[in-house]
Amino acid sequence: MTADSIKRRLRSAAATDQPFETALTLPGFVYHDTELFQRELSGLFGDWVCVGHVAALDEAGSSRVVDIGADSIIITCDREAGLNAFHNVCRHRGTRLLNVNEAPCRHIVCPYHAWRYGNDGQLKNAPGMDGRPGFSAADHALQPVRVETLLGFIFVCLNDGRPALDKFFPDLPDLSAFGLERLQRGAMHDYTVAGNWKLICENYNECYHCPGAHPQLHRLSNDADLPEFDHRGKNFTGGPMRINAPFASMTRDGQSGRPLLPGFDGQRADLVFYFNLFPNLLLSIAPDYAMAHYILPRAPDATYVQTEWLFAAQAMAEPDFDPSDAVEFWDQTNRQDWALCENAQRGLASSGHRSGPYHPLERCVHDFDRWYLRTISA
Fold first, then answer.
1. Domains of the chain with bracketed CATH
2. pTM to 2 decimals?
């Protein structure tokens, strides 16, 4: 399918790119079409993609491997240069260098012929190549990938022609008061969901489903109308929900002995903030911790999700620090959501599916869907 034919087919989704009150949801084929999926990988996921928080790379010699479609990327922490990112491909014969998601990595050594690279990507040793005329290690550094940080989160970009990260999110609200860049990882889970990545983002962007699907979540928070905190912009959508009294956080029992994060003053202490930074960062900020989902597509009907729970260093330094009240609460909620997405994936393949109207609580879903259509059609 050519780019023009994809655009022609996407015209059948024109009813989505309408004012919210009259718009219809995306057609089913966008969640299943394999050629459209490849366009998403090269287009949407060739732009700035979030791959984790700096807490996972806070020491020199630490590394992280992230797969974005057929591309595998190594992110390293180098003592002198800070964060670096490279294609996970040996410059000799293309072997994948690292296969472990996270590991200490003072040197990157090819498992095939033992070419060795530093964390700055420079080739340090190529056994037996000194005798080859004209060979210079300086000519065979790892291929770089653009890497920048925002609010403590690491983003990579495979497209050299895209603007800098701050230009990609020019109207993102000021979240600096929360001190997200100073948080530390308290726990991490990963999941594989048998559903399209867009379903996971759409599901995150509404709580219309919460009363029936998440009774433990619904008792803690509600969709109170909070227009002063309603945020939507060029490449993001989001806003807060109210935490119901007498609860204080999003945990098993709705309580927490941890101190409030910076930025949760008296006016905000009963709120939890949810943001989708397109395409793949789902960021939740509770009064005493943050949670981030990194959404990475594997196939039209398969998505890898890595989830981090992030806490203040002060809280983690306490001898009785225990993140399980937050982790177990959201792990249960996550698994409920993944089951909903998998069931939707099956339904959207039906010849009987027709696009339907958005519920008033699905404005952020509509934001995401319109962004998707306009970006994938560009």
1. 49-166 (2.102.10.10), 182-354 (3.90.380.10)
2. 0.95
